[in-house]
Write a structure and sequence with these properties.
The structure holds three protein chains of three kinds. Chain B is mainly alpha-helical. Chain B is built from seven helices and no strands. Chain C is mainly α. Chain C has one domain. Chain C contains one helix and no strands. Classes of the chains: A mainly alpha, B mainly alpha, C mainly alpha.
Chain lengths: 250, 195, 44
């Protein structure tokens, strides 16, 4: 008995296949860059994880938090989904930072620099670490969920800041090559690099979906377990009380 | 005495493992301190790297405050302090146990902060033996001093504001020594002795 | 380290991190499923 179903197994197979295909395309088929040589191959991890974390994961978290806060749609489903998506988003963002750091070491010569894009991303990372910590604080479920939902909405403010940081400030990090209203229809990336990146984004999205479903189900089961443990404990206490009544005062 | 210390230390570490406060809250806080330093100070080439030893130890000290607060916060709930006193455990053992638990958490934090400082401030590493010795001695000092004052203010309602006030002056010489030793380890020659 | 080394390290870290996280989630799912009866699930 697990959190898997036939559907997730198929999804998982596609995700794994997608990752394998991405790796092959990225490492073998696509060309090395003129200036960066092989280091550019890190692009095919760095960009997908960044997009997935910032826009998809944290976007889903924010959306689910909003749906939880709105009384008409409030349900445990949205709260648990928000938490699961945030955790995966933090994982992906951490990967973005690490891979970006390695890539920076090869192209810029430093592991880190305090330019706007990197700094705002690091701050956003810690912000969502704080959100995850907030989720663990033991408290009444509804109180905690509302608190976390508001925190998630506040934290999402950081995402547009990260996105626009390369526009607002002069940064070492390059400006948007695709996700920009001027570039969307005429991106600054071409040929096999472009569709390798595309494959990479699809692959990582499948990975995200697979992880999200499983992580959500784990969270769901955890909550069920907590409720059961509480019910069992209450039943035991009541039984004790009844036994004491029957036994009479000592 | 050491058996009691092991008992108390084990309890504290088990609480930490289950609640994960140090990993979820204190560690990100330490990282944040490093980031805020970068905001406040000039990130231009070299300056942060030169200040790295001092910034490292300041971040460690701030994290010590949190770790000590947490160590005594878990006793404050449910009358834990009285329970400890009534338990018949050797008081010295309790002290060593709590200090050891805090020290272990600090040691792990220092490793993480060390990596953070090397990556974020572009600091160079070197003088491994001196560095390790400094860290060990400093951590023992931080944990011991922190626990002493933690006990003093542990039961008070104003402990959050009182602990830093009492503890930091005591830690100042320790910070001085640790920073100079770290500078010496990293660069091969210490700066002038007084700040 | 050649550029190839950095790239290999990058891909290695990525796959290890994703794999380890996936493993942890699946393992926790198994343990929880064992502790609960089947009607607690909202999926098949």
């Amino acid at each position: 008995m697990t959190t898997s179903t036939p559907a997730t197994r198929i999804l998982g197979a596609f995700a794994l296949g997608g990752l394998a295909l991405t790796a092959v395309l990225a490492l073998v088929v696509s060309p090395a860059d003129v200036n960066q040589k092989d280091a550019v191959r890190l692009l095919y991890i760095h960009v997908p994880t960044a997009w997935l974390a910032l826009y998809l994961s944290f976007g889903v978290t924010t959306l689910c938090s909003a749906l939880y806060l709105w009384p008409r749609t409030r349900s445990r489903f949205w709260d648990l989904a928000a938490g699961a998506s945030a955790e995966i988003g933090v994982l992906f963002l951490g990967l973005t930072l690490v891979i970006g750091s390695i890539w920076g070491r090869t192209t810029w010569g430093v592991w880190w620099t305090w330019d706007a894009r990197l700094t705002t991303t690091a701050v956003l990372f810690v912000l969502y670490l704080g959100y995850l910590a907030l989720r663990r604080v033991p408290d009444d479920t509804d109180v905690r969920s509302k608190r976390c939902a508001i925190a998630a909405l506040a934290a999402f403010v950081g995402v547009p800041i990260v996105h626009l940081s390369v526009e607002w400030w002069r940064t070492l990090h390059q400006p948007a090559s695709i996700l920009d209203e001027r570039r969307l229809l005429d991106p600054a990336i071409h040929g096999s690099m472009a569709w390798t990146l595309f494959v990479g984004v699809i692959a990582f999205t499948l990975v995200y979906a697979w992880l999200l479903i499983h992580r959500f189900r784990v969270a769901w089961l955890e909550e069920r377990l907590e409720d059961r443990v509480l019910e069992t404990a209450l039943a035991e206490r009541r039984a004790e009380g009844a036994a004491a009544l029957v036994a009479g005062p000592r | 005495m050491f058996r009691d210390a092991a008992l108390v230390a084990g309890k504290d570490l088990r609480v930490e493992l289950r609640s994960r406060v140090a990993t979820n809250q204190v560690a990100p806080y330490a990282l944040l301190v490093l980031i805020v330093f970068a905001f406040a100070l000039d990130p231009d080439r070299g300056f942060l790297a030169k200040a790295a030893p001092g910034l490292f130890w300041v971040a460690v000290v701030f994290s010590t405050l949190l770790a000590v607060q947490r160590s005594f916060a878990i006793e404050a709930a449910d009358g834990g302090r009285d329970a400890l006193r009534l338990s018949g455990l050797d008081p010295a053992g309790i002290f060593i146990g709590k200090a050891a638990a805090v020290g272990l958490q600090l040691a792990l934090l220092e490793v993480a902060l060390g990596i953070g400082v090397v990556v974020l401030y572009d600091a160079a590493l070197g003088g491994a033996v001196l560095l390790a010795t400094t860290c060990v001695l400093a951590t023992v000092g931080l944990a011991a001093a922190g626990t002493v004052f933690g006990v003093l203010v542990g039961g008070l309602r104003v402990r959050e504001t009182l602990l830093p006030l009492l503890l930091l002056p005591v830690l100042a010489p320790l910070v001085l020594g640790a920073t100079r030793a770290t500078e010496y380890a990293l660069a091969g020659e210490p700066a002038n002795g007084w700040p | 380290m050649t550029y190839a080394g950095y790239v290999a390290a990058g891909y290695g870290i990525t796959f290890v991190a994703l794999g380890a996280y996936a493993w942890r989630v699946i393992a926790r799912g198994r343990a929880l499923s064992r502790a609960l009866p089947p009607e607690e699930r909202r999926w098949r």
